[in-house]
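Our consortium's second objective concerns turning raw sequence data into structural hypotheses that experimental partners can test. To show how far this objective has progressed, the report includes one record in full. It was chosen at random from the queue rather than selected for favorable results. The single chain below, 480 residues long, was entered without modification.
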Amino acid sequence: MWRQAGTSAGGAARRGIVVAGLRGGSGKSAVAVGLVAAWTSDGHAVTPFKKGPDYIDAGWLSVAAGRPCRNLDPFLMTPETIRASFAAHAGPLAVIEGNRGLFDGVDAAGSRSTAELAKMLDLPVLLVVDCTKATRTVAALVLGCRALDPEVRLIGVVGNRLGTGRQRRVIAEALREYTDVPFLGGLPRMAEEPFPMRHLGVIPFQEHGAAPGAVAALAATVRDHLDISLLLERICPLTTGSGEKRPETPHPAPGDEKEVTGHGGSGRVRIGIMRDAAFQFYYPENLEALEAAGAELVAIDALHHPDLPVVDGLYIGGGFPETSIAALADNSSLRRDVRRAAEEGMPIYAECGGLIYLCRSLEVAGVRYPLAGVFPVDLDIARRPQAHGYSVLRVEGENPFYPVGTEIRGHEFRYSRVLAWEGEPGRLPLRVVRGTGFAGRREGLVFRNVLALYTHVHALGTPEWAPAFVARARAFRGKV
């Protein structure tokens, strides 16, 4: 029996669902993005979430909802932090896209899996199944999920890559005959996948060229082939937290950060954010944490802005700088400004793609391109991932942002590798407890007030990061 929708403190109905798959590549991203876009176009205030550290799926969900998608990561965050973030931001209708397979976690017990997150938040699960060359077996897969963990509440099944009407009918009949989980429709096999793929997932929406149109087309497909009205009726209410919703702190979308040429009369420090087609990976919570600590965020387009604006600190996030390497290299004046700022002691925090930008050069397709040159490092792009997964770091040496003894949880995903480096791994301040790091199971390039890591952090899981960054920026501002 399904409970009736609950109400928030303001009286609005509150509902939520987790969209999960049996494996990566099953089609859950297409279903999640399509559902969010369809329900949003119907007038529902949909808040999207992404389970795990993924930036790219979260970006597409943000486009679909017209509001920030937040990450819920059981490895990077405590259960209390996850529940608090979800309760604070989940509005009348929340959609969480899972990652990998429903029960896939960091070990054989499924720890920190999508299933565990669904139970943690007391939300039902919509299971997406790739039905390529399968019919009745889909029912067996669903029964297996039921048996493995009966506490996971499967609310329905959505097929993906369906070939014929007969296949769809047989799957629906098999589910009705052998399970208590209804078939809510399925997406047809498409000549082209909804999102072009690159590396281990879809390309970022910033590089798509027609992201709103692609999302609208996917919403229309979902509306035509899924019973989204019935699904909405069957979603359980959110029960996590008190039901009160904290006002959402706005964070700047690409191009929305203020561009400034001077400090003016503000008491807030200015932190530049490189945010463009090359540098795209920023958690909303990271930007909000900087603002909460006293920062005003300043947009910088590393591809086109010729000069570094007057800022007190610089945050260069991850992304795919290799796809925009020619434009980054051609913008020599900005590269010189960044190097000069580093030499003058400006606090700079760089993650993965940002680390690449601060190095001396990057080789792509046999061509070597000059970069900012803060660190004497030459890189290239390998064909296979050089690091992929969660990381745990222990701070053992001096650096601008983290006290010695701090443990940092993050994640890595990179194809770049070191070709030449005028340094020694033992001098890097962070020891890699789990993961790969920069070199020799060490992490963290340091130059004056610059720290560059391959590891990405989430502000809710590393709460000391933003206050330390802003404090460094304030101290630097006081010296200039």
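The partners drew two points from this record. The radius of gyration is 23 Å. The chain has two domains: 6-234, 269-479. Both points have been shared with the crystallography group to help prioritize constructs.
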